[in-house]
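Worked example 3 (structure in, sequence out).
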């Protein structure tokens, strides 16, 4: 017998699961049945694609046996099975790609969210919510040796040789006090129908029940064995024979989510190429959207045989939140995954599926704006990813994406902006990491004063997306960080231009290479200063984004500082410059002037969301000026 210790973080994770998710104990059965189905899927694929397995008799079945007296629940399958190393690896390491994230998630206010279990691949360990000990007896298909894994979920597990008749896996749960309610046939049958009715393999529930004679008197016991599920692939059934509950139950079991999906799309493709597809759009952002545990949320079947949920890139990456299945009769069962990617039939199904998803989203936007805006709240950034990466469908994506605006409440379309723009041929936009901060940006003051609409892009991807669009139906895009506002403002209004020029001279002299230029502003109404970028330089937001995406530092652009000639601080700076010219030896006055010039630049950078290299220096300068 080999004894192994769980890693420290795994032990902590098990403790969190068993003590934090009791309100969702029932999902243990959903997870075990799904794992059993996956094991059978894998074997079915091998019996068709691998000569070494073609002699194996494939007769799939999942059995749940409850023994109330022994306080055990046993789930058996005749799937591919696990050998000694696989038992230790698969059941000894939890969610290798997401353990830490899972623990962080489970440690916050969402502790009682059972979705986390399926989301981070730790479904097997939900058994310890209702079991004080678990045994896993498994034998790999095509092998004679079997092995037993055993653990109480409290720090260690053992693996040892064992005996099992036939290949597959048995999981024996020794039920604790909290799980006593699941030792009845009625409760298990209800759960199997609720979560696993769609499983494409027969699920039998076996229990030992009292036996009665003709007079109704108990006379021993008998085994009751009944199939509890329909064992039909739901996606292959006609839409006319399905109701909403069928789709919802399948989604919850398939995705591991408890919430209802936002939308589902069920399609039967007929003609030269036949296929069935069922796609779901979740009603919340999946936890693995940016750190996917697997590459796809779409599983591929060929004639109901599970092929893969990885490496196919069935949908574009920007639709990675879509969950579902695709099943085709027109692909050979033994097709390799490499050839699959270049297969003409597969390409046709992919294109048709993408077109269908686009069509359904367009219909939703037209006919149910409330639900569509819910979709936008969740997945607008991913649509913007598509604008950058999918030139072929960019026009469609531009019709689906939504933006915030300085002119209207809520979300707006590019089409609506174009209508409101009238004869103007420019779409102005501002990007950053906070809608609230962007709305308060000094750069918008001139646009507000002139009633010119600006689109607000608070998503990290917005800077790239706007640059990728180029033009929209004859309108070009311009960032307010770049644009020379003569076309908006006209000439500078207000303030003493002579004093303003003196302030500009002072700022240039003091700030030196920290700025590319200093000039009087045509865009400021209330703020004393702002920073903009030369038309040939990347914006500060673009630089931050590229650094995050590539991990490579790009050359830091030097900003242009603009001063508001009508603001009293600029007049003060001009006065200081006059005093400096008259008495250049006055060190105190020179220091005050330097403080003010630096503050005007730093606060302008701060308004654009930039971090200070030396925040203490800014605070010291500000405090000195406040004290005076």
């Amino acid at each position: 017998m080999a004894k192994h210790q769980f890693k420290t973080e795994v032990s902590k994770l098990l403790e969190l699961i068993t003590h934090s998710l009791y309100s969702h104990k029932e999902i243990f059965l959903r997870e075990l049945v799904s794992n059993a189905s996956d094991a059978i899927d894998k074997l079915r694929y091998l019996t068709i694609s691998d000569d070494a397995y073609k002699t194996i008799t494939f007769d799939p079945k999942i059995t749940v046996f409850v023994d109330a007296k022994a306080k055990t629940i046993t789930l058996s399958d005749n799937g591919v099975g696990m050998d000694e190393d696989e038992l230790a690896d698969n059941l000894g390491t939890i969610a290798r790609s997401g353990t830490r994230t899972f623990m962080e998630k489970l440690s916050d206010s969402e502790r009682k969210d059972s979705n986390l279990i399926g989301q981070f691949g730790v479904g097997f360990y939900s058994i310890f919510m209702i079991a004080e000990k678990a045994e896993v007896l498994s034998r790999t298909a095509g092998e004679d040796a079997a092995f037993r894994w055993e653990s109480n979920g409290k720090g260690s597990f053992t693996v040892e040789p064992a005996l099992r008749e036939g290949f597959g896996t048995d999981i024996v749960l020794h039920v604790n006090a909290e799980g006593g309610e699941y030792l009845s046939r009625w409760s298990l049958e209800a759960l199997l129908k609720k979560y696993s009715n769609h499983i494409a393999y027969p699920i039998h529930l076996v229990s030992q029940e009292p036996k009665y004679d003709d007079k109704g008197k108990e006379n021993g016991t008998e085994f009751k064995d009944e199939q509890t599920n329909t064992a039909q692939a739901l996606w292959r059934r006609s839409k006319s024979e399905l109701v909403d509950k069928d789709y919802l139950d399948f989604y919850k079991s398939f995705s591991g989510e408890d919430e209802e999906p936002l939308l589902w799309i069920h399609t039967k493709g007929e003609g030269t190429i036949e296929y069935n597809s069922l796609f779901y759009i979740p009603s919340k952002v999946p936890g693995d959207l940016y750190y996917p545990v697997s590459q796809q949320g779409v599983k591929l079947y060929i004639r109901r045989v599970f092929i893969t949920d990885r490496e196919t890139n069935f949908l574009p990456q920007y639709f990675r939140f879509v969950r579902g299945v695709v099943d085709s009769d027109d692909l050979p069962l033994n097709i390799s995954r490499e050839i699959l990617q270049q297969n003409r039939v597969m390409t046709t199904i992919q294109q048709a599926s993408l077109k269908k998803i686009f069509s359904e989203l367009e219909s939703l936007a037209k006919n149910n704006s409330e639900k569509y805006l819910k979709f936008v709240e969740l997945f607008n950034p991913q649509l913007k990813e598509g604008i950058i990466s999918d030139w072929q469908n960019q026009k469609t994506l531009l019709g689906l994406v939504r933006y915030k605006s300085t002119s209207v409440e809520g979300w707006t379309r590019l089409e609506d902006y174009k209508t409101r723009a009238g004869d103007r041929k420019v779409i102005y936009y501002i990007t950053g990491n906070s809608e609230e901060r962007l709305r308060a940006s000094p750069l918008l003051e001139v646009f507000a004063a002139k009633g010119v609409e600006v689109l607000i892009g608070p998503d990290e991807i917005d800077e790239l997306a706007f640059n990728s669009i180029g033009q929209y139906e004859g309108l070009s895009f311009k960032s307010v960080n770049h644009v020379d506002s003569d076309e908006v403002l006209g000439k500078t209004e207000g303030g003493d231009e002579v004093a303003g020029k003196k302030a500009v001279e002072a700022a240039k002299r003091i700030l030196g290479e920290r700025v590319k230029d200093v000039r009087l502003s045509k865009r400021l109404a209330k703020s004393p200063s702002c920073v903009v970028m030369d038309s040939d330089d990347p914006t500060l937001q673009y630089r931050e984004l590229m650094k995050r995406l590539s991990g490579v530092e790009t050359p830091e652009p030097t900003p242009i500082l603009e001063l508001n000639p009508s603001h009293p601080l600029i007049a003060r700076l001009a006065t200081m410059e006059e005093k400096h010219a008259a008495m250049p030896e006055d060190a105190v006055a020179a220091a005050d002037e330097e403080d003010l010039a630096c503050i005007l630049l730093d606060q302008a950078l701060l308004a654009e969301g930039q971090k200070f290299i030396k925040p203490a220096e800014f605070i010291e300068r500000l405090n000195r000026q406040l004290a005076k």
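Notes: Residues 403-489 form a domain with the Rossmann fold fold (CATH 3.40.50.11260). The chain has four domains: 2-227, 234-370, 403-489, 497-627.
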